[in-house]
Amino acid sequence: MGSSYSWSINPFQDFLFRSLMYDTDIGDKEFEADIYVGISTILEYFVDDERDIHYLDFEIKKKSTYFKVVAKNAITALWLSGIFPKNPRNVLETNEFVFENIKYRFNDKTKKLTYKFLKK
């Protein structure tokens, strides 16, 4: 059995899902700039310094039956996951971030964000 989508948990997922609902091919290069602008605009509401938005770097890969959003750096991976660190530069230097007893780590080679629960 599958699960249902929950709105308002992650604004970026909502934006991309809503785009798909309106029949936008988010993997089409023609819409690449529009998707970037949409995500940048949403991000402005969450970052303390709007200049940090220049760290936003991702790619949308279209597979046969689905789309895959791939962050190209640690801060973008966190942002797209709905996590907004106060100091993006520190995250980019270490590729790690601790939030609410969870340690997030970004692998530059695989472009994957992993997490580990920390002991209290």
Set down the secondary structure blueprint.
Blueprint: H1 11-21, H2 32-43, E1 58-62, E2 67-71, H3 74-80, H4 88-94, E3 96-99, E4 102-107, E5 112-117
Antiparallel strand pairs: 1-2, 3-4, 4-5
Helix pairs in contact: 1-2
Approximately how much helix is present in the residues? 25-40%
How many strands, which pairing sense, and closed or not: the largest β-sheet?
3 strands, antiparallel
Mean pLDDT: 91
Secondary-structure element string: HHEEHHEEE
What's the number of extended β-strand segments? Answer: 5
Poorly predicted regions are none
Cα distance spanning the termini: 34 Å
Give the overall shape.
globular
Strand order of the largest sheet: 3-4-5
Question: Count the helices. How many?
Answer: 4
Helix-strand category: alpha+beta
Provide a compact summary of the structure.
This protein has 120 residues and is of the alpha+beta class.
